[in-house]
Specification:
Shape: globular
CATH class of one domain: Mainly Alpha
Largest sheet: none
Strand content: under 5%
Oligomer: single chain
CATH architecture of one domain: Alpha Horseshoe
Number of helices: 20
CATH superfamily of one domain: Tetratricopeptide repeat domain
């Protein structure tokens, strides 16, 4: 199942809204002018829509996406270029948090184009490329992400920006983790953490520590993961960062779910969702719905499991998160298998496997092949079950998930003993 693998360069959206962001860059006069222009636009369109005949229920309230576009236009004309590029980069970060990836990508493109090859704006260009790489990583576009990260590293090197280079290191770790190379992922993350610590960037160091906890949990080292999470909780609580607290409680929940401690997992998922809702953190909301679906499936509450799976699927479709969708299909397959509808279960599973093979995700493939093995056993088909479980074991071995690999080995041994009787 997908984990809340996060990015140490994603700043907390201070206040969480466009107006809070603008307030950090614009003086009172500029902020007042932007507000006035948007209010006039809203009032004009409200009046026109009120007169629109024959179109009942026409959406009121204006075009939220245009408000950001209009603010960016005004700010580019009024702010110094360096301040404007920083504003655009933070607006892109805010858009990532709310799940508006197209807007985030367009803003990153704008910064890269406006920064050009100027040394003065090299840091801004590096930040924009790192942000765009984050979007590509969330969409499993590995090659595009790596290309942007390498370009970002060049810009940060020119700017002598060690923090930027640390962000690149952490992103490379996230990318390697998603593709199953947990050893190399951890090496990049530890390097990033050391760089953040030297720069006295406590929040970013804590985020990478949390990421190392995720890697430990994937490998079945739950006690080690717990230590990492306990180390960073006081820091995130001190910061009052909604997104960081949402991520951390989600990762606590995933750890408890892996240990079979369902009551604790449910409480942590609900805490995460509470923080995510306040921060409008759409990608993590989808992951927490998915986690709750898997939990209710394990408890045998299939109506609730399907309900949360559908909620997660709705979010992932909106975000164009193909790996998230594949994960939902795998969970739904388990539900259908438990209810005895094996043909529907197989269709869900084969679709999940096809998507995961397309994006080369060994963790999700391992889980999907394991479920396929259980499906074959439910049909009494020993040879296909063995083949699927062998493939699951191979993928668990790739990512170093020892406890899962041992569990599969026990099932294979049991099949062999049963056959010899």
């Amino acid at each position: 199942m997908k984990k809340a693998q996060v990015d140490a360069s994603s700043p907390e959206a201070k206040g969480g809204s466009l107006w809070d962001l603008l307030g950090r860059f614009c003086d009172d006069a500029l902020l007042k002018r932007i507000r006035s222009d948007i209010e006039k636009l809203q009032e004009s369109e409200e009046q026109l829509l009120g007169k629109a005949a024959g179109i009942p229920g026409e959406k009121r309230g204006g075009d939220e996406s245009f408000y950001l576009e209009a603010a960016i236009t005004e700010c580019e004309r009024a702010l110094p270029k360096e301040s404007f590029l920083d504003l655009a980069n933070e607006a892109a970060a805010l858009s990532v948090t709310t799940g508006d990836y197209p807007t985030a990508e367009r803003l990153a493109d704008l910064v890269v184009e406006r920064a050009g090859s100027s040394l003065r704006f090299a840091r801004a260009a590096g930040m924009a490329l790192t942000r765009r790489a984050e979007i590509f990583l969330r969409q499993a576009k590995w090659e595009q992400a790596h290309a942007d990260l390498h370009q970002a590293a060049k810009h940060f090197t020119r700017a002598k920006d060690q923090l930027g280079l640390a962000r690149v290191e952490n992103h490379l770790g996230i990318s390697l983790a998603e593709r199953g190379d947990l050893k190399e992922a951890a090496a990049h993350m530890r390097k990033a953490r050391s760089m953040f610590e030297r720069a006295k960037q406590a929040e970013m160091s804590a985020v990478v520590t949390m990421d190392l906890g995720i890697l430990a949990n994937i490998q079945g080292k739950h006690d080690e993961a717990l230590i990492f999470y306990q180390q960073v909780l006081p820091r995130f609580e001190e910061l009052g960062s909604l997104t960081r607290l949402a991520e951390l409680h989600h990762n606590y929940a995933m750890m408890y779910l892996a240990k079979g401690e369902h009551t604790e997992a449910l409480g942590q998922f609900d805490m995460s969702l509470g923080y995510s809702a306040r921060a409008e953190y759409k990608p993590l909301i989808g992951l927490s719905y998915l986690g709750k679906s898997a939990l209710h499936q394990k408890q045998g509450d299939y109506p609730l499991a399907v309900a949360f799976a559908n909620r997660a699927l709705s979010v992932f479709r909106e975000l164009d998160d193909r790996l998230g969708m594949a994960d939902v299909y795998k969970v739904k397959a388990g539900i259908q298998r438990a209810m005895g509808d094996l043909d529907v279960a197989e269709l869900y599973l084969q679709t999940s496997i096809r998507i995961n093979e397309e994006y080369r995700n060994p963790l999700n493939l391992a889980e999907s092949y394991e479920e396929l093995g259980q499906l074959a056993l439910a049909r009494g088909e020993e040879a296909p079950a063995r083949a699927a479980l062998e493939r699951a074991k191979a993928h668990y071995r790739i990512i170093g998930a020892r406890s899962e690999g041992k569990r599969i080995e026990l099932q294979l041994t049991s099949l062999t003993k049963g056959k010899s009787r």
